[in-house]
Amino acid sequence: QSALTQPPSASGSLGQSVTISCIGTNSDIGTYNFVSWYQQYPGKAPKLIIYEITKRPSGVPDRFSGSKSGNTAFLSVSGLQAEDEADYYCASPGVTGIFGGGTKLTVL
Amino acid sequence: EVRLVESGGDLVQPGGSLRLSCAASGFSFTTSWMTWVRQAPGKGLEWVANINQDGSVKYFMESVKGRFTISRDNAKDSVFLNMNSLRAEDTALYYCARDKANFAIDLWGQGTMVTVSS
Predict the structure, then answer these.
(1) Nearest-by-Cβ selection for A45 from B50, B59, B111
(2) Residue A26 vs residues A33, A35, A70, A79, A93: alpha-carbon distances, Å
(3) Burial letters A37-70, b for 16+ CB under 10 A, else e
(4) pLDDT score recorded for residue B63
(5) Any idea of the CA torsion for B88, B46, A38, B30, to the nearest 10 degrees?
(6) Is some CB atom of chain A closer than 8 A to the CB atom of B61?
(7) Best mutation target, A22, A47, A48, to test chain B (most B CBs within 10 A)
């Protein structure tokens, strides 16, 4: 089972918005409504920021939102802040669990 | 405090074995799916295996099937990853994590490093 496909990098200016895509297949994202997204800073453990496509855990700012269309999931970050600069990973159940390759978000 | 603490990572030769442990505290361990995720140096996250609440259901990524096993001891709030026939490509930081439901991995340990090298 190949990794979900994410762009290696994304960027946006302070206060602007950015959207990161996560492309899967009919066997994972296309079948399950359980896409999750994780934020990871260098040297730190990942943190859950979106689950079940659109839900945010307590404490995650509403600037983070998720969506899905067909076999592709999206993470949107609005009102970019300096602390949003991190690596972002999507994940989905499939044959087994599967993560995306990760996207490094740079805030300009 | 809600936490997961991994241990057991080490430097091991190719073909060798290792047992990782993860001690849980501060939450209801017996009602949680538990997962192992790894991250090779400078690389992305890779889902490795998970186990259901009573240990009767287990899933593994393809490349570790037949080499890795996952188990848990609910009396000791612990989950384990037994790794055999280790390969260089198994070198990674191994995270223990809790899947709160529907693949929402909401609690992560700090990781334990496994290095496979001669």
Answers:
(1) B111
(2) 12, 13, 8, 32, 11
(3) bbbbeeeebbbbbbbbbeebeeebeeebbbebee
(4) 95
(5) -110
(6) yes
(7) A48
Cα B37–Cα B38–Cα B39 angle in degrees, nearest 5 = 135
Q: For a pLDDT cut of 90, what percent of chain A falls above it?
A: 94
From the list B103, B110, B111, which residue is nearest A91 (CB)? B103
Asked if B115 contacts B62 with a C-beta cutoff of 8 angstroms, the reply is: no
Distance separating alpha carbons of residues A106 and A78, to the nearest angstrom: 13
Q: Are residues A107 and A84 in contact, defined by beta-carbon separation less than 8 angstroms?
A: yes
What dihedral do alpha carbons A21, A65, A63, A46 form, nearest 10°? Answer: -70
pLDDT for residue B97 is more than 80: yes
Would you call A52 and B108 a contact, using CB atoms and an 8 Å cutoff?
Answer: no
Q: Which two tokens stand for residue B12?
A: 């091991």
Indicate the length of chain B as a whole number. Answer: 118
Structure tokens at B51: 């186990």
Tally of residues, chain A: 108
Would you say the C-alpha torsion B20, B25, B31, B37 has a positive or negative sign?
negative
Residue A51 to residue B102, Cβ atoms within 8 A = yes
